Protein 1
Amino acid sequence: MSAPNYTSVIATVVGPDRPGLVELISKAVSGHGGNWEESRFAHLAGQFAGMLRIEIPEANLADLEASLNALAESGLTVSVTRGGDDGESGSGNWTTLNLSLVGQDRPGIVSEVSHALAERGINVEELSTEVESAPMSGELLFRADAELSCPSDLALDELRSALEAIGPELMVELSASD
């Protein structure tokens, strides 16, 4: 008997937040021989939202999808997509950078930041954003933390200048990841 052929899938989950949702999802995964590899979940505007990567025997995939889709009875919307190649995009040498931004919030700031990154061939690997009140003034501050995959010949000073040009009070911190 040969070893099962495993496949990687990504499941996205959204629904009204309440205790026990992660347990429902994990039972469906483990009940079909799947291995929960990694996940990101958050409470957003009263909703439970997230995604997870599962390694599952190919023969069990259809049953897993059916079990996850049955979670609609619990108010969850689930979408399952096969994973792709986990290699770096493009060719050549890549480096990983951590980006932290803080500045006055306004509509369009994410669009402007993502445009500056895409224009330089930078891939956003992870992104976390929030809006919070400034400690002294109470004005709304936009905060973003990202892990970026960048061409190794990227000019960091030029990237920093381009990001700082988005807003007069935008503070930019770039650091290489180990």
Protein 2
Amino acid sequence: MKKQKNIALVAHDNRKKHLVEWVQYNWQTLLKHSMVCTGTTGKLVEETIQAKMQETGIKSEFSITKLKSGPLGGDQQLGALIAEGKIDLIIFFWDPMSPHPHDVDVKALLRIAVLYNVPIACNRSTADFLISSPLLNEPYEPILTDYSEYLNRNV
């Protein structure tokens, strides 16, 4: 990982308000990094950061890549970016109390993040710990599990 991270921001509908509040608090830190968001979350994050910049008079370029909505393939697009090594950490405010029609995609996204040793925060407390880590602003090389034995097995 380079010093500037690629941060994925995702939130289920019932948790978008919480993510927006978190972005309002952490927007200046997020400006130093590139962001990838699913669907509506990307629009909300972009609007939130632009409003904070206008409010404070701070002018800065920032990068947000917006994927499709999660249920329309955004979770799978994000999973592909993780597998390609293009995501450094994930802030995913998911709602454990609501059923989701794309629940299998959510589980696959969580699985692929663990498989590729990508830090993932699923609640605000963990997101606060990740974004305040000194490792966020330093180069970092995660240790990946060697799956060669799995790949070379005789089937």
Protein 3
Amino acid sequence: MSESLRIDKWLWHARFFKTRTLAAKVVSAGHVRVNAERVKKPSTNIRAGDGLSFMQGRQLRIVRILALGERRGPAAEAQALYEDLTPEPEARPAPVERVGIRPTKKDRRAMEALRQTES
């Protein structure tokens, strides 16, 4: 039998989630797909070569498992466990600068002075 590891444990080892309990909750809620199939059991076994897709916060993450890992090590060690296939986010257009929406206190004083001179 080939090597395998629980999905919640791997997500924790790869540092996608801060705790194993949080990883298990995400899997139980059905927010994780293994090779395009939704899984709902944190005890689901995964192997090297499997593809995972899941939401991490507001970002969709797509990864390919390269190794299973034996412990939750430093970030550099965790990044060696997977290949990140997540597409680059689209560049958002620059926010439009809102000019003249609401006058400042100085502007209001100038308008008031103008009104008084016109009267």
